[in-house]
Automatic annotation (TrEMBL), chain A:
Residues 2-238 form the ABC transporter domain. This is Phospholipid/cholesterol/gamma-HCH transport system ATP-binding protein. Pfam families: ABC_tran (PF00005). It comes from the Bacteria. InterPro entries: AAA+_ATPase, ABC_transporter-like_ATP-bd, ABC_transporter-like_CS, P-loop_NTPase. One of its GO terms (molecular function) is ATP binding. The keyword Nucleotide-binding applies. Keywords: ATP-binding, Nucleotide-binding, Transport.
Automatic annotation (TrEMBL), chain B:
The chain crosses the membrane at residues 12-39, 59-80, 156-181, 206-226, 246-265. Could be part of an ABC transporter complex. The keyword Membrane applies. It comes from Celeribacter baekdonensis. GO terms for cellular component: ATP-binding cassette (ABC) transporter complex. Keywords: Cell inner membrane, Cell membrane, Membrane, Transmembrane, Transmembrane helix, Transport. This is Phospholipid/cholesterol/gamma-HCH transport system permease protein. It is found in: Cell inner membrane; Membrane. It comes from the Bacteria. Belongs to the MlaE permease family. It is a multi-pass membrane protein.
Amino acid sequence: MITLTDVHKSFGAKQILRGVNLTVERGESCVIIGGSGTGKSVMLKCILGLVTPDRGTITVDGEEVTASGDRDAFLARFGMLFQGSALFDSLPVWQNVAFRLLRGSLKRPRHEAREIAIEKLRRVGLSPDVADQFPAELSGGMQKRVGLARAIAADPEIIFFDEPTTGLDPIMAGVINELIREIVVEMGATALTITHDMTSVRAIADKVAMLHGGKIRWHGPVAQLDVAEDPYLTQFITGSAHGPIETVR
Amino acid sequence: MSTTRAANPILHLLARLGAAVLGTFAAVGRLTLFTLSTFRHILTPPFYSREFFHALMNVGYLSLPVVGLTALFTGGALALQIYAGGARFSAEQVVPQIVALGVVRELGPVMVGLMMAARVTSSIAAEIATMKVTEQIDALVTLSTNPMKYLAAPRVLAGLLTVPFLVAVGDTVGVFGGWFVSIKSLDFNSATYLKNTIDFLEMPDIVSSLVKGAAFGVIATLMGCYFGMNSGRGAQGVGQATKSSVVAAAVLILAANFLLTQAFFAA
Ligand SMILES: Nc1ncnc2c1ncn2[C@@H]1O[C@H](COP(=O)(O)OP(=O)(O)OP(=O)(O)O)[C@@H](O)[C@H]1O
Ligand SMILES: [Mg+2]
């Protein structure tokens, strides 16, 4: 279970998070929506400890993430897909995917790691030929899928996806949505996904939370998305240019 | 702020000076912590042997051509200068001795050090800074890999171990450059020249040269890692980090050279 309590974060004078409260249950798929630049990515990075909140607490299974325990062991439970993929461009694709399996506590024989990498690549719709290519040789959407394969490679318990379907064609987006759903249902993983793609929201979410103005403006089960009476949420999901959300921000 | 500035320019100046001094102390502190952390990671497992091997190739082996060329030309030019200078008081015959001393004690290590700053510091800083701005460093952390251990430790260790070797090569090639010019255009006898060189050099000369190499290797690689990891955002951040790292490495190498020379020879 992931709990954020009153999390604040500013960069210089710019306040990004102003008291975020959110709970994600174990085995639940939570989707975060919200306007561009509202701090969704920053929020994920706070949970992973990549960004230190100015105020507030974040716990994972009751354990505070900023506590100086064994960080590597803590992070070994997580998988993260970065918005910009963040692939290591000095390593071929398969070594990116199998990064965790080639070193550290999850280390395996090289050929085994490679086989797992190729299997994970297949799951994100990439053929084995890309395994030996370098990230710079791939298209943006392919890079994103390699990032996704890397995030799920070591079968983590908790997975964060920062815009998994952005830049993918509709069919591939469908494949990825199905994959995320599968990971949650079959492997019992906890997933926290950021997306702007409403089809994706409906396909993968158990629960939806909307970030606006540095706080969780609305949250609830995905089924209530259309019946909720929050003007901000309604404007967001209908994609209307008119409503309470400023269009210049 | 602007009113106090107008009212009291001296106070403003003092404030600026104070800020600069504090900033310098803070930077020195950060750099010291970074250095200590790097060495701690060099000494504690896990060790990333693949990264270390790549660093050895990049810092050491691939630097050989540039080190050889700079040393060759420097040794040759030194021989010409000493011959011309020595002729003013009929001391042309000291060319082998002075070339040996100049190259081994000073020019060899310094030239190699500066070439490391140009070739190795810049590439490390640009690579790590690019990794930082494209979130690859964050990705490393989420993959339970400590960036200090994975990126900094192997590179600095490679600098520590390979640059003395490069300096040895540079010294040898530099002396050879002096020898070549001396026998080809200054009418020295080859055997005598070499004998004079070998007889003249002493162990402390060579040891100081290698110690300087190790120190410069650490400085060059450490500066690349430090500025890379502390890079600002975007392409501009990468450019700035690269520039600062090379400047810092060059200045620190020359300063360290002075201090080491003093430590070894100012008895
Ligand atoms: N390291 C940083 N330093 C300074 N400002 C930052 C930093 N990281 C993020 N920001 C700022 O925080 C704000 C929120 O960024 P974030 O990336 O979380 O937005 P987002 O909600 O993920 O948007 P998008 O949907 O476009 O990805 C932005 O205004 C951004 O400029
Ligand atoms: Mg984002």
